[in-house]
């Protein structure tokens, strides 16, 4: 008596990782279905060694589906997730579209699994850069409270999808093998697919992820601010972010500064992080041990190190937080939500549809 | 009636840039001499189209030298700079060795050229990551005062010298052309040549530059703290840094958060930066204009953008600061110090030697 699980956006950078996570998941799965846009429909993917053909996503795709994992862009979720709910499925949505919707729990299971029981058919998976910061900060918030967060990110290009990975590799090869000057490279994807101008990422650092909002912060930066407040249920927590893309393919790194409400000893902070599920303490500077992007790739954990007191602020702490953006930042967090829904008996149809059919 | 100028460490990543800066400098130069260690002595470099042989640095090398630019590592400066001063030269030292010495002005000409008149034969050029931050922050400090600085850096590998550039290119090629996994790459230089362990930089971000100090900050981070206080003559200014190496060859980027003493309007901050010598405002997010490492390469300016208010702290401001670490961060700032010494009539021998001969 297992579930029928659908993956929408199965051929993308996150979708393929979702499939890998489902293959090793504890979720009882009877049937798996892969859905995509017209461009990828008809492709054949593998699930536990069996070939599965990718189907075109339509309003009728979700009959008989118990759990639908969406990662095909905000407009696909906006259009099809309500039909999935109407058909009786529970949706775990990896896009930003529903994250601030009051009917939608925004969940990092280690942090706020208790909000899952309020779901109305859709649960949102937070932004990759937010999730790993939540795993690092929640153990601190629980013991000492949080007053403010200032974060500067070092984000991998895979957060912008497979086309950004391909663009980065192509650009790097053109510099290293063909001798092009990085500033003369042709760019078509980064920093934001939907924005007007595109800039090279090879040997560069781009202080723009997603498009700009009216307050001169980017959407990515505002996601970190607004999602942190919602997940932690701390509307007054001060959070400001600077989100930066760097020429790394996989794993986001973050330089995080926090001020706690109560004064915390660094050794106690380290112990709290080490004891928190999903967090791994990597912090022994005498042995040059600190988290590194290349070592986090393929792991579902969030690695935390360089934990040290601010040189001046009594309640200020700096740290370095690294995780695989496609796994804990997206695919694993989504599958983990599905597993938690199952464990809590929350995989069931909703009675009233709260989401508009487009 | 020009000067005899010596460049110590002439064959290094910074030394070669120093030579380029001297070629276009307004400094009246009669004779140029290139000095190095045994490894590079005998090589022939070009100066304004003329071949010049590199000489071995000895205690006797500085007879007749008016200005000596040092960039061959702290131990070379420690050993030979006092002999240069003893021989009547003025030393501009690009290493960290003399920076906190009370007899040594630590100078970013746009910020504190007034301290040059106190020199006793040696002037120190600050660390690359400090210099560009000083150019961005000094116009703000002068108008509104500074209470605190929190900076996270995105530093180019060229700050660790030519061998680090070579290592980065080799690693990237091994991944892109030969299919190696980044975590399996062999590293011999980064993160710090003198430290025990070495880690790959290709597709990575290393939260270690230079070795660690007793307070769990790295020396690079403590340079930013201590040098900022000395240059700005603000011993009580709160400065904490997280210094990170990323796979970029040239130009450092910095995510800088400050709190001012007096409240400042963002438009006024932008105007103050735009009016400050050496600073260039690149800030129009509606047009996706912000500083980028690849565009700063080869320029002596410091580019500042993404200037915006903190979302919560009334006097908090975030910005993104980018400059060519080998030029304003080292070679140009050193040559600019020499030019300023000349303009102020301060290229003259000192009477009493304040520095120990080793």
UniProtKB/TrEMBL annotation, chains A, B:
One of its GO terms (molecular function) is protein dimerization activity. Pathway: Amino-acid biosynthesis; L-lysine biosynthesis via DAP pathway; (S)-tetrahydrodipicolinate from L-aspartate: step 2/4; Amino-acid biosynthesis; L-methionine biosynthesis via de novo pathway; L-homoserine from L-aspartate: step 2/3; Amino-acid biosynthesis; L-threonine biosynthesis; L-threonine from L-aspartate: step 2/5. It holds the Pfam family Semialdhyde_dhC. It catalyses: L-aspartate 4-semialdehyde + phosphate + NADP(+) = 4-phospho-L-aspartate + NADPH + H(+). NADP(+) binds at residues 11-14, 39-40, 158-159, 325. The keyword Ribosomal protein does not apply. Keywords: Amino-acid biosynthesis, Diaminopimelate biosynthesis, Lysine biosynthesis, Methionine biosynthesis, NADP, Oxidoreductase, Threonine biosynthesis. Substrate binds at residues 155, 245. The active site is at residues 128, 252. CDD domains: ASADH_C_bac_euk_like, VcASADH2_like_N. The keyword Oxidoreductase applies. GO terms for biological process: 'de novo' L-methionine biosynthetic process; diaminopimelate biosynthetic process; isoleucine biosynthetic process; lysine biosynthetic process via diaminopimelate; threonine biosynthetic process. It comes from the Bacteria. Residues 4-119 form the Semialdehyde dehydrogenase NAD-binding domain. InterPro entries: Asp-semialdehyde_DH_CS, Asp_semialdehyde_DH, Asp_semialdehyde_DH_beta, NAD(P)-bd_dom_sf, Semialdehyde_DH_NAD-bd, Semialdhyde_DH_dimer_dom. Coiled coil: none annotated. Belongs to the aspartate-semialdehyde dehydrogenase family. Catalyzes the NADPH-dependent formation of L-aspartate-semialdehyde (L-ASA) by the reductive dephosphorylation of L-aspartyl-4-phosphate. PANTHER family: ASPARTATE-SEMIALDEHYDE DEHYDROGENASE, DEHYDROGENASE, PUTATIVE-RELATED. Homodimer. This is Aspartate-semialdehyde dehydrogenase. It comes from Streptococcus chenjunshii. The lineage of its organism: Bacteria, Bacillati, Bacillota, Bacilli, Lactobacillales. The gene is asd.
């Amino acid at each position: 008596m297992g579930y029928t699980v659908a993956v929408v956006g199965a051929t993308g950078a996150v979708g393929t990782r979702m499939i890998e996570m489902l293959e090793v998941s504890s979720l009882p799965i009877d049937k798996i279905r892969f859905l995509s846009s017209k461009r990828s429909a008809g492709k054949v993917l593998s699930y536990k060694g069996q070939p599965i053909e990718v189907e075109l996503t339509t309003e009728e795709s979700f009959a008989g589906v118990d759990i639908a994992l969406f990662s095909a862009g905000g407009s696909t979720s906006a259009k099809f997730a309500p039909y999935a709910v109407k058909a009786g499925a529970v949706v775990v949505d990896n896009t930003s579209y529903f994250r601030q919707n009051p009917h939608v729990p925004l969940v990092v299971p280690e942090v706020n699994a208790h909000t899952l029981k309020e779901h109305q058919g859709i649960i949102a998976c937070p932004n990759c850069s937010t999730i790993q910061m939540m795993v690092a900060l929640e153990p601190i918030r629980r013991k000492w409270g949080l007053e403010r967060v200032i974060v500067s990110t070092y984000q991998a290009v895979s957060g912008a999808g497979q086309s950004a990975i391909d663009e980065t590799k192509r650009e790097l090869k053109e510099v290293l093998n063909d001798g092009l000057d990085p500033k003369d490279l042709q760019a078509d994807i980064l920093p934001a697919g939907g924005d007007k101008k595109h800039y090279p990422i090879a040997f560069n650092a781009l202080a723009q992820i997603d498009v700009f909002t009216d307050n001169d912060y980017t959407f990515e930066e505002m996601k970190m601010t607004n999602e942190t407040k919602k997940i932690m249920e701390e509307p007054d927590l001060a959070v400001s972010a600077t989100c930066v893309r760097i020429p790394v393919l996989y794993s986001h790194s973050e330089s995080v500064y926090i001020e706690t409400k109560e004064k915390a000893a660094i050794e106690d902070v380290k112990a709290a992080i080490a004891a928190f599920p999903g967090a791994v303490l990597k912090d022994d500077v005498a042995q040059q041990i600190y988290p590194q992007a290349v070592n986090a790739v393929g792991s579902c954990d969030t690695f935390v190190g360089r934990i040290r007191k601010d040189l001046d602020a009594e309640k200020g702490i700096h740290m370095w937080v690294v995780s695989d953006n496609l796994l804990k930042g997206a695919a694993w967090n989504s599958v983990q939500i599905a597993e938690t829904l199952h464990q809590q008996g929350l995989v069931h149809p909703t009675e009233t549809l709260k989401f508009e059919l487009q």
